[in-house]
Amino acid sequence: MAESRGGVAGRPRIGIGWPLAAGVALGIASFCADLVDGTLRTVLQFVASTGFAWGCAAFVAAFPARTRRGAAAAAIIVLCTATGCYYWLNLPGGFRPGGQFGPLFKAFAYWMVLSIAGGALLGPLAHAVRTDRARRAAVAAGVACGLLSGAGIAIVTSLLAAGNYGRAGLTEGMLQAAAGIAVATWAFARRREARDWAVYGAAALAACTAGALAWSAVESVPVTGF
């Protein structure tokens, strides 16, 4: 089959420049969030070192993709690049007195596997929200809503269940949850085709519950990470 500079004839080329750049920026910002204090740390952690931030970057990068495969590739590239960049920047810590490479490599492998899995989920969901028929797009948007807001909901529910009503922790969790819901709703609302808001609402409600449980399980594993 003939190929052009744009890729295989009849198929759009998957551009990796934007996902790579987004992944590098996300990894560096997440690393920097560990080095600063005060308000700057709070801001950087929210925009670059939370489950919402990483999921949102993958979802948004995948949204314009022309094909489902391209969307999955874009999301995976963002998350894997960010993970690799973050742990590469943390690598010198293993050379310091008392530093250990074992836990670092374990965390890197764990989050890399989750990056691939998360990208493989979020990418096709973003594509479905933009291009599928109304009902399927609504379900996809609802599932994406649960994935993007799940980390924040998990934080809030775990704090409340433990009787911890500290303002900082609850605020962080609620901001993540609200931002995740806002991004998924925005993506669904900007569809050019028909929208089924009732299906979206039902799917989002179920997915937020499932997403919170999934994130609780993810973060229960004792490795260095978010």
From TrEMBL:
This is Uncharacterized protein. It comes from the Bacteria. The lineage of its organism: Bacteria, Bacillati, Actinomycetota, Actinomycetes, Micromonosporales. Keywords: Membrane, Transmembrane, Transmembrane helix. InterPro entries: DUF6518. The chain crosses the membrane at residues 12-31, 43-63, 70-89, 109-126, 138-161, 173-190, 197-218.
